[in-house]
Write a structure and sequence with these properties.
By secondary structure, the chain is α+β, with helices and mostly antiparallel strands. It contains three helices and six strands.
Length: about 160
């Protein structure tokens, strides 16, 4: 059984009113599914994808292409309690590193310094081996969680596990 996953998707937004980049970190849930069912795996991925698209559309209230995906992390970030909260947060300190698995995969954490990020990262053998050295970037991002949006137009939007 593939368990439900928390998905963090980092987007860069180029606004027409400002010449600076803004970052949005979306936190969505990807439902679990039986490993033997490729159809339910695809449905799980589609549900999570539709959640992101609906939220980005609501944010932009116009052309969704204004949001460019920087990367995505699935699972538990290396640190930062702020990433596990129950509501969206206007601005968080976010650090991300590119993954050896290539785009779109990144490693994320919410820390004030890159040194703190690497200290915590060292405690997780899998993630520390996955992070590409010297690819770490510190940004300010808006954390947006799916609970703050009406996703009821998406079939099975609130499912934690999909079954046949």
């Amino acid at each position: 059984m593939a368990v439900k996953l928390t998905v963090y998707s980092l987007y860069k937004t180029k606004t027409s009113f400002r010449h600076s980049n803004e970052f949005i970190l979306l936190r969505t849930i990807k439902p679990g599914y039986p490993n033997y069912s490729a159809n339910l795996e695809r449905l799980s991925e589609e549900i999570e994808h539709q959640k992101r698209q609906l939220i980005l559309s609501a944010i932009a209230q116009q052309d969704i292409s204004m949001h460019v995906m920087v990367g995505q992390f699935q699972g538990f970030p290396v640190g930062g309690d702020v990433l596990f909260g129950e509501t969206s947060i206007k601005e968080i300190s976010l650090i991300y590193a590119k993954s050896t698995f290539g785009h779109p995969w990144i490693i994320i954490g919410s820390f004030e310094t890159i040194e703190e990020f690497y200290e915590k990262l060292a405690e997780d053998q899998d993630l520390s081996e996955e992070a590409i050295p010297n690819s770490t970037i510190k940004i300010q991002a808006k954390l947006i969680i799916e609970n703050d949006y009406d996703l009821s137009a998406i079939p099975f939007y609130n499912a934690e596990e999909l079954r046949q």
